[in-house]
Amino acid sequence: MTTPQLETDRLRRWRLVLGGEVDGTGCGLTGRDAAMDGALAALYRGAGETGRAGGPRSAGLGGSAPQVARWLGDIREYFPTSVVRLMQQDAISRLGLDRLLLEPEMLEAVEADVHLVGTLLSLKHALPETTRETARAVVGKVVAELERRLADRTRATIGGALDRSARVDRPRHRDIDWDRTIRANLKNYLPEAGPDGQGTVVPERLIGYARAQNAVKKDVILCIDQSGSMAPSVVHSAVFGAVLASMKALDTRLVVFDTSVVDLTEQLTDPVDVLFATQLGGGTDINRALAYCQSKITRPAETVVVLISDLYEGGIRDEMLKRVAAMKAAGVQFIALLALSDEGAPAYDHAHAAALAALGAPAFACTPDAFPDIMAAAIEKRPLPVPDAIG
Questions:
Q1: What's the rounded mean pLDDT across residues 169-182?
Q2: Which of 149, 211, 284, 305 gets the most CB atoms within 10 Å of its CB?
């Protein structure tokens, strides 16, 4: 049986969901509920709705920077961070909030995330001098948060893969891979029970791995599509590029492209510099980018190429596919990621994804948390853990 209090709470929630006037539910809002409703109304009751007088009702943020600053403070007070970030994205797309991000006080008020970083990078040429340092600080904050989340696990996972990839036949005792050694020597099994009552495997051949810390063992090339739709992937790629570049056993190169190709390897020590050197937006020439990457490969059997792109090719399709086939035939481990972000697979060119899959390079979306395992598998030349791969 529904109690009066439960019925009141139900009507209150519906009133917050539906917005508008109280007539629809018969429930009025006061205090914190009224403030939450006002923040939602300012964003979502925009042009196209009509007020009581029948005239158009405009969105409540208008173009006033102080009013927007107050609204940003309100939503951070009344809603969890995940909702705040979603509302900010909606404000940018619906109300032109990006224009107000050119003001330092606006940047200081927003909740920073990878989507905001993408917006700032797309606006970087319009940033006035007074806003540039604030923008760098906002981008730096997001990059630092991503590094704290991802760096340690990436180094540990890939470091282990590098060690295991350097197999040797005369390992030191501490470097013996006992699982592989036992399997390789099963033909030498003696069923006669030993002192412990068990049979014995005679290890004629020891299999182990050398430690990889003191020499470059693998070359990694990150080839990043910097078209506007790839902004979150660009942000994560810059962070991962910096982490990989910090590992002495890897020689890491980071290349970004649209219709031109830019090598940002020299800036990998600072992912913020990498991000401000990108040019979000524009066309796409994957073939040209892969041609550049291919020219930098000197040890194909020890090279991992990671193409991060939605595969909408503006260049020469057949040549692009021939380059991928040639790299794989030479021994390169080739990975095609449709996205490197938490949002899942974006819109992408299905025909190109299927063509890559036919070459043995399935295209799939990858979350930042899964990326270290993908790289570890490529370094060890194991099948990639991609159950949702395309094709």
A1: 68
A2: 305
